[in-house]
Every structure is written in structure tokens, then in C-alpha cells.
TrEMBL record:
UniProt-recorded name of the protein: Epimerase
GO biological process: D-xylose metabolic process
Assigned keywords, A-Z: Decarboxylase, Lyase, Membrane, NAD, Transmembrane, Transmembrane helix
Transmembrane feature ranges: 28-48
Domain NAD-dependent epimerase/dehydratase: 28-273
Matches recorded under InterPro entries: Epimerase_deHydtase (IPR001509), NAD(P)-bd_dom_sf (IPR036291), UXS-like (IPR044516)
Amino acid sequence: MLHYLKDDLDLIFHNTKEVWGDLKDSTIFLTGGTGFFGLWLLMSFIFVNRKLELNSKMIILTRNKSNFLSKHKWVLEYPEISFLEGDVNNFKFIDAPVDYIIHAATDASIKLNDEQPLVMFETIVNGTKRILDFAKLKEVKSFLLTSSGAVYGKQPSDIQNISEDYLGSPVISDSNSMYAEGKRIAEVLCASYYKLFNLPVKIARCYAFIGPFLALDAHFAAGNFIKNLLDNEDIIIKGDGTPHRSYMYSADLVIWLWTILFNGKDNNPYNVGSNHSISIAQLADYVSQESVDRDINVIIKTPLSGKDTLRYVPNVDKALNELNLKIYTDINTSIKKTIHFNRIF
């Protein structure tokens, strides 16, 4: 698997090799290691660990090791990866030393948020509290929380790109705000552990992403459209196609996450995502143009409403200026790479 993704892993290596200096003979503890973010963090860690001869290890917290390995047997080839079975809410603390923690355990599941909002809340808040207690016990060198742009609430239509100092919030009378409010509380918990225990917490407010291993059957528009393409189906947009999003490629994502973990300012949020805004209709058009079997039509079901445009697009100047990061992969290349991967695997 790593060989197939070597171009992406080389990109990650060349843009992060200067930040790994303190990691030699260290251990990273990763929650959410079996998801989209986690797989890319896992792969890039293996690649860099071997390239720089760091002699480091990664421990992945998972509820079901066997289930994960049945899908990704290739991970067994790498002894630097080990697993701790348990739930993020109540996993057993281990005696082994841990130097860094990345907490990426919460799935941004619309279905779970809608049908079981209390489970969503408990997973985010109680899980974050548990992992922060673990980080405090281990006196880690750095702790990274993957938060979300959802913490800002609905983005005003007159703000093209929303920045970290925006003080908006989700609608608290709406139970569908549970995910966003949970992430806000998770960030406050991080701030409290920073203040009370001097825990070096870093926060990545993540937006929308695309790349190999993205779920094609979840609520992600990019994944859904790619699935339509691979199934030789027309792309049907139920709305009017005007909402604007941005999509960061998975390799770019982990460059940003590793850099924030090692070089980000403590208790400081960084937006993580692309600042290049496109409409849902444009995204569908870009995907449809990659068809090789037949013309894929984009069908928009709802007439233009005339309402203000819905946006979910970050301002990433803070990360660009403070951490010298950038967008390395454009949207068209990102789409092509994701489609190509899914045609093969």
C-alpha cells in the first residue's frame, strides 16, 4: 500500500522532514487511527519513521483490532505499529511511555449525530476528557486535538473564508448541533488542561477533505459523486448546487496535522483545509469530467432559491503565515488521484 501511494508519501516527507527532529526513539499514541485521518497519519508515520531512521513507535487505540486488520492486512508488515483495544471513553491506561498524542477519534457522522446525539456527545466530550487525563499522566511533549470548522456555527454568507477569531457558534436549541457543541467543549477542555496542568495542547479545526480511503457511501458529497462516477451513474444533486465548500487533499492534510503537532502554538486553534471555494455543482462537474466509459450528467433537482449562498470555507492565513504551510495539491489533481485509487482498490 505504501508503495502505491509513494508520490503522496514523498510529498509528505519533503514538507515535514524538518519538524520530526525530537521524535527519535519516541512513541505516538493515536486515537481514531482506523479512520480516514488515522490511516493517512499511520502511513505517513511509517514512511517518515523509516526514511529518517527514527526508531519510533505508534500505538493505535481501536475498539476492534481484528476488524481493522481484516481490511488492512498490510499494516502487519510494520512492527512499529501496535494496537490497544478499547473504547476512547474508558480505555485502560497503559504503563508504556507515550511522548505524543493525536486525538482524532470522533467520526463526523451525520447519521449518528441525528439518530443518537447523546452518543455523539459522550464520544466527543468524555473521550476527550479521558485522553487528556492520559496525556497528563504521561506528561506528553505535545497533544493534538482534531476539532472541526463546525465550531463556528453557520458561516455568514458575506464572509468568504472564516478565520479562527470569528466568534460565531452553533444553534444550541437544535439537537443537530451536538457534534459542533461537543467539539467546542472538547476545545475548552484542552484549554483547561493547558491552564491547569501546562499540557501542550494544539488544535486543528478541520474542514472537508478528499483522497484515497475517503468513504464513498457516507455523507461526504465528494465521495458520493465519485461513487456515482465509478458506478457509471449520473450525479444527482438534491439541492440547487449553490452551497460552497473547499476540499483539501489527504496528503496535504497530514502535512498540516504533523506540522501543527510539532510546531503549532500551544492552546491555539488552526483552521485546516483549502481556502479555494467551489460550489457543490462545480464539484460534481469536475468529477463528471473524469468519466472514461460514458458521459456522466449532473442533474440538479432544485431550482435556484435566490437565498444567500451557504458557505463552509476556512481562512487559513494563520497556518500559512505562522507555520509556513501551503496548499500543495489542487482540487482537480485531488479528484483525479482519489478516483484513480478507487478504480484500483
